[in-house]
Protein backbone atom coordinates (compact mmCIF):
# COMPACT_ATOMS: atom_id res chain seq x y z
CA UNK A 1 0.00 0.00 0.00
CA UNK A 2 1.37 3.35 -0.91
CA UNK A 3 1.46 6.45 1.30
CA UNK A 4 -1.43 8.10 -0.52
CA UNK A 5 -3.71 5.11 -0.02
CA UNK A 6 -2.63 4.83 3.59
CA UNK A 7 -3.38 8.51 4.18
CA UNK A 8 -6.82 8.20 2.50
CA UNK A 9 -7.62 5.14 4.60
CA UNK A 10 -6.53 6.91 7.77
CA UNK A 11 -8.53 10.00 6.84
CA UNK A 12 -11.61 7.83 6.18
CA UNK A 13 -11.10 6.07 9.50
CA UNK A 14 -11.01 9.38 11.42
CA UNK A 15 -14.04 10.66 9.50
CA UNK A 16 -16.00 7.51 10.42
CA UNK A 17 -14.83 7.85 14.01
CA UNK A 18 -16.15 11.48 14.16
CA UNK A 19 -19.46 10.51 12.56
CA UNK A 20 -19.83 7.62 15.01
CA UNK A 21 -19.13 9.99 17.94
CA UNK A 22 -21.73 12.46 16.60
CA UNK A 23 -24.24 9.64 16.14
CA UNK A 24 -23.63 8.44 19.71
CA UNK A 25 -24.12 12.00 21.00
CA UNK A 26 -27.35 12.31 19.00
CA UNK A 27 -28.56 8.97 20.38
CA UNK A 28 -27.75 10.15 23.93
CA UNK A 29 -29.66 13.39 23.37
CA UNK A 30 -32.62 11.48 21.94
CA UNK A 31 -32.61 9.14 24.97
CA UNK A 32 -32.67 12.15 27.31
CA UNK A 33 -35.53 13.70 25.32
CA UNK A 34 -37.41 10.38 25.41
CA UNK A 35 -36.95 10.12 29.20
CA UNK A 36 -38.26 13.68 29.64
CA UNK A 37 -41.21 12.97 27.33
CA UNK A 38 -42.06 9.78 29.24
CA UNK A 39 -41.97 11.68 32.54
CA UNK A 40 -44.26 14.37 31.10
CA UNK A 41 -46.64 11.72 29.78
CA UNK A 42 -46.77 10.17 33.27
CA UNK A 43 -47.58 13.61 34.76
CA UNK A 44 -50.32 14.20 32.20
CA UNK A 45 -51.80 10.73 32.76
CA UNK A 46 -51.89 11.38 36.52
CA UNK A 47 -53.58 14.73 35.93
CA UNK A 48 -56.05 13.09 33.55
CA UNK A 49 -56.89 10.43 36.14
CA UNK A 50 -57.46 13.14 38.74
CA UNK A 51 -59.65 15.12 36.34
CA UNK A 52 -61.66 12.00 35.47
CA UNK A 53 -62.23 11.31 39.18
CA UNK A 54 -63.51 14.86 39.66
CA UNK A 55 -65.77 14.47 36.63
CA UNK A 56 -67.22 11.19 37.92
CA UNK A 57 -67.86 12.79 41.32
CA UNK A 58 -69.48 15.83 39.69
CA UNK A 59 -71.69 13.63 37.52
CA UNK A 60 -72.74 11.64 40.58
CA UNK A 61 -73.63 14.84 42.42
CA UNK A 62 -75.57 16.06 39.38
CA UNK A 63 -77.45 12.77 39.17
CA UNK A 64 -78.37 13.02 42.86
CA UNK A 65 -79.56 16.61 42.36
CA UNK A 66 -81.70 15.58 39.37
CA UNK A 67 -83.18 12.72 41.40
CA UNK A 68 -83.96 15.02 44.34
CA UNK A 69 -85.53 17.56 41.99
CA UNK A 70 -87.66 14.87 40.33
CA UNK A 71 -88.81 13.66 43.76
CA UNK A 72 -89.64 17.24 44.79
CA UNK A 73 -91.63 17.81 41.60
CA UNK A 74 -93.45 14.54 42.16
CA UNK A 75 -94.26 15.62 45.73
CA UNK A 76 -95.48 19.00 44.46
CA UNK A 77 -97.78 17.33 41.99
CA UNK A 78 -99.16 15.01 44.68
CA UNK A 79 -99.87 18.00 46.93
CA UNK A 80 -101.50 19.93 44.09
CA UNK A 81 -103.64 16.92 43.15
CA UNK A 82 -104.67 16.33 46.77
CA UNK A 83 -105.63 19.97 47.31
CA UNK A 84 -107.58 20.06 44.06
CA UNK A 85 -109.36 16.81 44.93
CA UNK A 86 -110.30 17.91 48.45
CA UNK A 87 -111.31 21.53 47.90
CA UNK A 88 -111.64 21.81 44.15
CA UNK A 89 -109.10 24.62 43.94
CA UNK A 90 -105.74 24.78 42.31
CA UNK A 91 -102.57 25.86 44.03
CA UNK A 92 -99.47 27.68 42.93
CA UNK A 93 -96.05 26.25 43.79
CA UNK A 94 -92.90 28.38 43.50
CA UNK A 95 -89.22 28.31 44.45
CA UNK A 96 -88.93 24.60 43.69
CA UNK A 97 -91.62 23.69 46.20
CA UNK A 98 -90.50 25.96 49.02
CA UNK A 99 -93.42 28.37 48.63
CA UNK A 100 -96.93 27.02 48.16
CA UNK A 101 -99.94 29.26 47.85
CA UNK A 102 -103.55 28.17 47.65
CA UNK A 103 -106.85 29.93 47.37
CA UNK A 104 -110.05 28.53 48.80
CA UNK A 105 -113.29 30.05 50.10
CA UNK A 106 -112.08 33.58 49.32
CA UNK A 107 -108.99 33.10 51.44
CA UNK A 108 -105.38 32.78 50.47
CA UNK A 109 -102.99 30.69 52.50
CA UNK A 110 -99.25 30.57 51.97
CA UNK A 111 -97.00 27.77 53.14
CA UNK A 112 -93.22 28.16 53.32
CA UNK A 113 -91.03 25.07 53.70
CA UNK A 114 -87.77 25.76 55.51
CA UNK A 115 -84.48 23.90 55.00
CA UNK A 116 -85.65 21.11 57.30
CA UNK A 117 -88.99 20.55 55.56
CA UNK A 118 -90.97 22.28 58.31
CA UNK A 119 -94.01 24.21 57.12
CA UNK A 120 -94.73 27.78 58.18
CA UNK A 121 -98.33 28.76 57.41
CA UNK A 122 -99.32 32.32 56.72
CA UNK A 123 -102.83 33.60 56.11
CA UNK A 124 -102.72 36.20 53.35
CA UNK A 125 -105.05 38.93 52.21
CA UNK A 126 -108.31 37.74 50.65
CA UNK A 127 -108.23 36.60 47.05
CA UNK A 128 -109.37 39.19 44.55
List keywords for this structure.
128 residues; alpha+beta; 2 domains; four-stranded antiparallel sheet; 4 strands; 66% helix
What does this structure look like?
It contains one helix and four strands. It has one helix at residues 3-87, and strands at residues 91-94, 99-104, 107-113, 119-124. The longest helix has 85 residues, at 3-87. It is α+β, with helices and mostly antiparallel strands. The protein folds into two domains: 3-88; 90-128, no CATH class.
Structural class: alpha+beta
In terms of DSSP E residues, the strand content is 15-25%
Shape: rod-shaped
Largest sheet: 4 strands, antiparallel
Number of strands: 4
Mean pLDDT, all residues? 80
Number of domains: 2
Distance between the termini: 124 Å
* Strands ordered across the widest β-sheet: 1-2-3-4
**Helix/strand order:** HEEEE
H/I helix tally: 1
Radius of gyration: 40 Å
Q: Which spans have pLDDT < 50 for at least 5 consecutive residues?
A: none
Helix content: 55-70%
